[in-house]
Design a protein that fits this description.
Layout: H1 8-41, H2 45-67, H3 73-94, H4 98-102, H5 106-113, H6 116-134, H7 140-176, H8 186-197, E1 205-213, H9 216-223, H10 225-242, E2 249-251, E3 256-262, H11 266-282, E4 292-300, H12 306-322, E5 328-330
Parallel strand pairs: 4-5
Antiparallel strand pairs: 1-3, 1-4, 2-3
Helix pairs in contact: 1-2, 1-3, 1-7, 2-3, 5-6, 5-7, 6-7, 9-10, 10-11
This protein binds guanosine-5'-triphosphate (GTP).
């Protein structure tokens, strides 16, 4: 049996890197066309020449990104950046102004060493420092050229940092959420329970709602698995709408959801569960009758383990099913 070479998180990260690399390479490509044209018109042939060199590197990078396997995206991009910096420095050396071009190495270094917001300040500060240092040594036009080249590189590196941050937010979302229902996933549930109710947890009490769609196997058998999937998605959306904003809703298993009510008692839990049950019973699922059963259990620090509470919620849910479904059963508080 073939084994999975890369997990979904890695695949997603590689795809994000590839996208970031492509967007930035296209950005550089377009910028260099503008810079090359403007400098040619201004009769600054050496600066125009540099723009054409960078344009060629960006073009090669785009071609490689589009033709080679996507997981190489990050490597292709960084090889291109390295080539670009070496090209810029060699160009500076060739034209007798090596000093200021060495400064170009700093924006990428800084952006990889510190976070994006501080990176911007550090890059600008270094640029101003470098420009001030070289100003007495070289003609004003070269200081302006340096400042504009450095400024472009800073914008470009800052965009890279911002895109990386957006990618990280997306990755976080995908790792915490279930793809079908958009609810928080079971792993996040386990983590939340550990953080709140574990031995070093922060919560003193909470109430669990365990929610299960009734006769879901029959719904699948009658209407097909795709219709079943749509119903799971819609049930999640209806539950989310019925809950107070900020209340976490988890996909606990196949057609099971759970709600975690922090610092709320069993009566509150029963009332919320009743509202959820009614919301689903009243919703229109394109003609398919859909109801849910809910088991409720309360946990208080020092009164038994969290696992035992989840077991009680499960038993309450079983009782709700056994006594006819489309109902809420709340576990009795521990004596
Ligand atoms: N379409 C779809 N079906 C799922 C998914 N996850 C679980 N199921 C199905 O959900 C069904 C659950 O069936 P059962 O556990 O027997 O329970 P039930 O038919 O809902 O009956 P009760 O819970 O007793 O009311 C199984 O047939 C699973 O295959 C999913 O993501 N999509």
């Amino acid at each position: 049996m073939p084994t999975l070479r890369r997990d979904s998180f890695t695949l997603l990260r590689e795809l994000m890197r590839w996208r970031v690399a492509l967007v930035l390479s296209v950005l550089i490509f377009v910028l260099m066309i503008v810079l090359g044209t403007v400098n040619t018109r201004l009769d600054l042939p050496d600066t125009a020449q540099l723009a054409w060199i960078v344009l060629a590197i960006a073009g090669a990078c785009i071609a490689a990104l589009l033709t080679l396997p996507r997981h190489l995206g990050g490597t292709i991009f960084f090889v291109s950046i390295a080539l670009l910096l070496v090209g810029v420095m060699a160009f500076g050396l060739h034209h007798g102004r090596p000093m200021q071009h060495w400064a170009y190495i700093f924006p990428p270094v800084i952006v990889f060493l510190v976070r994006s917001d501080r990176a911007l300040v550090a890059m600008i500060a270094f640029g101003v420092y470098a420009a001030a240092m070289i100003a007495p040594l070289i003609p004003a036009i070269d200081v302006i050229r340096f400042a504009s080249g450095y400024g472009l590189l800073v914008c470009f590196m800052f965009t890279y940092a911002l895109l990386q941050e957006r990618a990280a937010v997306m990755l976080r979302y995908h790792s915490d959420h279930d793809a079908l229902s958009n609810c928080l996933n079971r792993r996040t549930f386990n983590e939340a329970v550990e953080q709140l109710a574990g031995p070093r947890g922060t919560a003193e009490a909470c109430t669990f709602l365990l929610i299960d769609i009734d006769y879901f196997k029959a719904i699948n058998d009658l209407h097909g698995h795709l219709a079943g999937d749509r119903i799971i998605t819609q049930v999640a959306a209806e539950l989310g709408r019925a809950l107070a904003p900020g209340t976490p809703l988890f996909r606990y298993g196949g057609e099971e959801f759970s709600v975690l009510l922090l610092d709320r008692g069993l009566d509150d839990g029963r009332a919320v569960a009743e509202e959820l049950r009614a919301a689903i019973a009243d919703a229109d699922f394109q003609g398919v009758p859909v109801t849910i059963s809910i088991g409720v259990a309360h946990w208080r620090r020092g009164e038994g383990s969290i696992t035992a509470t989840l077991d009680r919620a499960d038993r309450a849910l079983y009782e709700a099913k056994r006594s006819g479904r489309n109902r809420v059963v709340a576990d009795a508080p521990l004596a």
